[in-house]
């Protein structure tokens, strides 16, 4: 039996899963105190000890493989290390020596132990949280999913995913009820068929479930206070969230962004930021690195300054974004990514943009899927057709295989394209932020590939609201007032995790575990999480149905 299949069978064995549950019990070592940063479980302490073995004397600190509780995992770790051809020093520094990797490993082992080995893999908590840190932004981009802007007012409205109080029912411009408060969850999970409306006006106001006093800043934004932001970081750390991706708005406009980042970095999380780049002066980049930010992703939608500025709302932004990119590329201790929202107007610039990034020394190119939400709902005619999206995916796969730059995409079909178009031993996308080569990676992609919303990823709004994805404005609760478990295990999330619970081709697709379709696009066009993604070449009928609404 090939090695990858042996590993699958091993992980699927009930005895191994019982062992995983024991190893990841959140039972802190009293000697270490309740704030231990290793996940407060035995496995985390083992990983930490492997990374820093200490002196070899029996009385010394760190890893002592002859200890009964460390002997078996030590031998298993050595087995995996030898099979992968890695040195012990590499494992210590790059794997177990990275606190965020340790968190992710603990969370994965805990999830397999508690939930079993599933396709796609379910997780007891998200591996990554995207935090829309502030609604404020110094730009007013035409396609902003957050509807952010200079005023910082939270104008983007969320669909409540559970019943609210009983006051008036919001109505759309045709006078239809936008959602009955007592049956809103049913509307989200089992939407009505065939209803048409303006894509930009199909959201209903979110109402708080309780009426706590909501702190507001000087312009009336219901955003989290600094203490509340730190409490959310503590909450994510307790659940072994490995990565926080800060977004916005423009995070660098918030005076609490870098202090909160430093607080999260001290708890062992991997931190990234998505920014428009206009505020990335050299001293600001240095402050970001000192605060623990290890990756900055700057938006750039065209190699033509005039086109980029027109899309982003004001002249001069291209020059400032490019200056920011170059400042990050030159800075030590941080990697640089460039993000491009690929639409009809700039699809022809994809190759020139990739070549520009390579010439500038950019580490990663991230192609964002166009999704009709926020202000982009008014630009649905700019969405790529399935044929145009295939053109985009083929270009991304070509550059990924070429190896000159790392290529990521929020389009879940990217994983399928890597398998269809690439060499069997070539690189394949494994999710939002990963790719690798070989048979083992292709098997791994069945468990972690495709859309991660509600399964290994969720998003947090500036006011603490939790949503499945930044492109999916469905309110699950608020981390100010609701428990993490209530939010993460919301019925909407259960729908997103079950790729058999789909309609159309997405239900039967050979690539559903590598892809699963973009649920945000299904929601954006049809308000139906189960409906097939209209952006895929296998879903032409859905594409025509979506276009009929424009």
Helix content: 25-40%
Radius of gyration based on Cα positions: 23 Å
Strand content: 5-15%
Strand order of the largest sheet: 8-7-6-5-4-3-1-11-12-14
State the end-to-end CA separation. 52 Å
Q: Whole-number average pLDDT?
A: 83
Number of strands: 14
The global form is globular
Q: Largest sheet, if any?
A: 10 strands, mixed
What is the number of helical segments per DSSP (H or I, 4+ residues)? 21
Parts with pLDDT < 50 across at least 5 consecutive residues: 29-39, 57-62, 163-188, 190-198, 200-221
Alpha-beta classification: alpha/beta
Q: Can you give a write-up of this model?
A:
This protein has 550 residues and is an alpha/beta fold. Helices cover 38% and strands 11% of the residues. The strands form 3 sheets. A 10-stranded mixed β-sheet has the order 8-7-6-5-4-3-1-11-12-14. A two-stranded parallel ribbon has the order 2-13. The protein has a two-stranded antiparallel sheet with strand order 9-10. Helix 10 (282-290) links the parallel strand 4 (270-275) and strand 5. Helix 2 packs across helix 6. The model is unreliable at 29-39, 57-62, 163-188, 190-198 and 200-221 (pLDDT under 50).
Question: What's the structural blueprint in terms of helices and strands?
Answer:
Elements: H1 3-11, H2 14-23, H3 42-51, H4 68-84, H5 88-95, H6 99-115, E1 128-132, E2 159-160, H7 184-189, H8 226-238, E3 243-247, H9 257-266, E4 270-275, H10 282-290, E5 293-299, H11 305-312, H12 317-330, E6 335-341, H13 350-360, E7 364-368, H14 386-402, E8 406-409, H15 413-421, E9 427-431, E10 434-437, H16 439-448, E11 457-460, E12 465-467, E13 474-475, E14 477-478, H17 484-488, H18 491-497, H19 505-508, H20 519-526, H21 540-547
Parallel strand pairs: 1-3, 1-11, 2-13, 3-4, 4-5, 5-6, 6-7, 7-8
Antiparallel strand pairs: 9-10, 11-12, 12-14
Helix pairs in contact: 2-6, 3-6, 14-15
């Amino acid at each position: 039996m090939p090695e990858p299949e042996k590993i699958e069978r091993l992980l699927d064995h009930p005895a191994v899963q019982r062992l995983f549950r024991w190893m990841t019990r959140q039972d802190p070592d009293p000697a270490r105190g309740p704030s231990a940063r290793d996940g407060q479980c035995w496995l985390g302490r083992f990983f930490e000890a492997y990374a820093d073995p200490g002196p070899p004397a029996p009385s010394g600190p760190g890893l002592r493989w002859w200890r009964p509780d460390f002997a078996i995992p030590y031998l298993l770790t050595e087995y995996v290390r030898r099979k992968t051809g890695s040195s012990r020093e590499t494992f210590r520094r790059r794997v177990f020596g990275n606190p965020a990797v340790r968190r992710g490993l603990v969370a994965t082992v805990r999830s397999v132990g508690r939930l079993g080995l599933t396709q796609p893999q379910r997780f007891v908590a998200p591996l990554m949280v995207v935090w829309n840190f502030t609604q404020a932004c110094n730009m007013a981009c035409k396609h902003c999913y957050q509807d952010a802007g200079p005023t910082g007012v939270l104008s983007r409205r969320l669909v409540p995913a559970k019943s609210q109080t009983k006051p008036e029912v919001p109505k759309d411009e045709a006078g239809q009820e936008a959602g009955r408060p007592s049956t809103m969850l049913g509307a989200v999970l089992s939407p009505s068929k065939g209803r048409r409306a303006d894509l930009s006006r199909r959201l209903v106001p979110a109402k708080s479930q309780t009426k706590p006093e909501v702190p507001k800043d000087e312009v009336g934004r219901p955003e989290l206070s600094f203490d509340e932001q730190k409490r959310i970081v503590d909450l994510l750390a307790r659940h072994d969230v490995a990565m926080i991706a800060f977004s916005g708005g423009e995070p660098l406009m918030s005076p609490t962004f870098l202090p909160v980042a430093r607080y999260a970095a001290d708890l062992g999380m991997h931190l990234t930021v998505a920014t428009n780049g206009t505020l990335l002066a050299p001293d600001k980049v240095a402050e970001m690195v000192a605060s623990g930010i290890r990756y900055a992703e700057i938006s750039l939608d065209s190699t033509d300054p005039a086109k980029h500025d027109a899309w982003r709302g004001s002249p001069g932004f291209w020059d400032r974004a490019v200056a920011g990119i170059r400042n990050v590329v030159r800075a030590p201790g941080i990697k640089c990514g460039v993000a491009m929202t690929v639409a009809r107007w700039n699809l022809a610039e994809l190759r020139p943009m990739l070549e520009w990034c390579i010439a500038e020394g950019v580490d990663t190119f991230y192609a964002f899927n166009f999704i009709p939400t926020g202000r982009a709902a008014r630009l649905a005619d700019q969405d790529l057709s399935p044929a145009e999206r295939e053109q985009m995916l083929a270009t991304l796969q070509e550059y990924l295989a070429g190896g000159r730059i790392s290529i990521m995409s929020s389009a879940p079909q990217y994983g399928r394209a890597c398998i269809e178009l690439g060499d069997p031993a070539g690189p394949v996308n494994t999710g939002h932020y990963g790719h690798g080569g070989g048979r083992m990676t292709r098997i791994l992609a069945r468990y972690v590939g495709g859309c991660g919303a509600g399964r290994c990823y969720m998003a947090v709004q500036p006011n603490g609201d939790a949503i499945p994805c930044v492109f999916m404005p469905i309110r699950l609760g608020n981390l100010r007032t609701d428990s993490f478990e209530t939010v993460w295990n919301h019925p909407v999330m259960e729908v997103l995790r079950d790729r058999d619970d789909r309609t159309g081709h997405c239900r039967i697709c050979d690539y559903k575990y590598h892809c699963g379709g973009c649920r945000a696009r299904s929601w954006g066009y049809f308000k139906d999480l189960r409906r097939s993604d209209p952006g895929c070449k296998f879903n032409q009928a859905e594409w025509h149905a979506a276009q009929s609404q424009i």
